[in-house]
Amino acid sequence: MRLHVVEHPLIAHKLTVLRDERTPSPTFRQLTEELVTLLAYEATREVGTEPVRISTPVTSTIGTRIADPQPIVVPILRAGLGMLEGMTRLLPTAEVGFLGLQRDEDTLEAITYANRLPDDLTGRQCFVLDPMLATGGTLVASIEYLFERGARDVTAICLLAAPEGLGAVEEAVGDRADVTIVTAAVDEGLNEKAYIVPGLGDAGDRLYGVV
Ligand code: URA
Predict the structure, then answer these.
(1) What is the pLDDT of residue 181?
(2) Which of 78, 197, 202 to mutate for ligand 1's pocket (most ligand atoms within 8 Å of CB)?
(3) Which of 5, 40, 168, 193 is the most buried (most CB within 10 A)?
(4) Among 65, 14, 4, which residue's Cα sits nearest to residue 36?
(5) Do 65 and 189 touch, CB atoms closer than 8 A?
(6) One of 56, 59, 107, 175 is an active-site residue; which one?
(7) Can you give the pLDDT of all 211 residues of the chain as single tens digits?
(8) For ligand 1, what atom is nearest to the CA of residue 196?
(9) What are the beta bridge partners of residue 132?
(10) How far is CA 30 from each of CA 8, 15, 159, 208, rounded to the nearest angstrom?
């Protein structure tokens, strides 16, 4: 597993506003999209490309385009949905799959309640959107889903990560595949309710309200 903590003044600034408990949902949603776009810029550095011949108004030349099969973006419902727009703004040709996982607040285990993914992900670059890498349960379950369908190249974009979650993904993935975590920060750890500290609270609630 590779870890990429993206350091940039704009990322640090936006993350600080997200952390602030006074930030209202509309601002939180807007900033999440902006932050994801910045993280996506780094996360897509190794996206597959191929040469393409084009004509400019002046001459013919060889350019670059994103290669087929197109990458697939997988937001983990519900909070990952708040990251989708920020990602597809940068990668508009990507296919979008959905995975509905939520953690059982007692056992902290990930439960699947929705799944809309292609059956065969062999050779596909997969970008998983999951804002909070806390215990790692949800992300590990998501990665296993993608592995079962043949994916071996997975990049997870997380707003925040805890050392415990990073450890869990590392242990689960081993050397089975190429997995990269791209995040804005690695926080101190988890509290007794498995919230990231200092964190930003419940990302789903802050994006969409408590339902
Ligand atoms: N999920 C969240 O939304 N926040 C946390 O701090 C941990 C998991």
Answers:
(1) 98
(2) 202
(3) 40
(4) 14
(5) no
(6) 107
(7) 999 999 999 999 999 999 999 999 999 999 999 999 999 999 999 999 999 999 999 999 999 999 999 999 999 998 999 999 999 999 999 999 999 987 677 776 778 889 999 999 999 999 999 999 999 999 999 999 999 999 999 999 999 999 999 999 999 998 888 899 999 999 999 999 999 999 999 999 999 987 7
(8) 6
(9) 160
(10) 18, 12, 14, 12
DSSP state of 163: H
Q: What residue type is assigned to position 124 of the chain? A: R
* Cα-to-centroid distance, 45 and ligand 1 (Å): 27
Position of tokens 């994103």?
66
Nearby residues of 187 by Cβ (< 8 Å), 6 or more positions away: 160, 161, 162, 196, 197, 198, 199
Residue 198 token pair:
């200092």
Task: Provide CATH code, domain 2-46+69-199.
Answer: 3.40.50.2020
Domain boundaries of the chain, sorted by first residue: 2-46+69-199
List ligand 1's pocket residues with C-beta within 6 A: 79, 132, 134, 195-196, 199, 202-204
